[in-house]
Amino acid sequence: xxxxxxxxxxxxxxxxxxxxxxxxxxxxxxxxxxxxxxxxxxxxxxxxxxxxxxxxxxxxxxxxxxxxxxxxxxxxxxxxxxxxxxxxxxxxxxxxxxxxxxxxxxxxxxxx
Length: 112
Hints:
Layout: H1 4-25, H2 29-49, H3 55-81, H4 89-111
């Protein structure tokens, strides 16, 4: 499948898994668990949207992905500003980019 948002969110999920392993190594289990759930859920919802039953279903699944991206952004900002947490700037850049793409996909899908 050659779909940029599917590929981008899949790679982001892998990056989040690696980052969460670092968090767990530092005993930051609560944040690691929350971030792992929301960060990997984005790609899962994007993939699910690819087999949507209707345009409305597609938009709904992409909106869920966008909500998960917002939550992921929140947890990554916690990591950025909390003392003793690892640096999360690269993941923040990626999630901001993914969020913009998802917003554009939703807006474009609604206008068709």
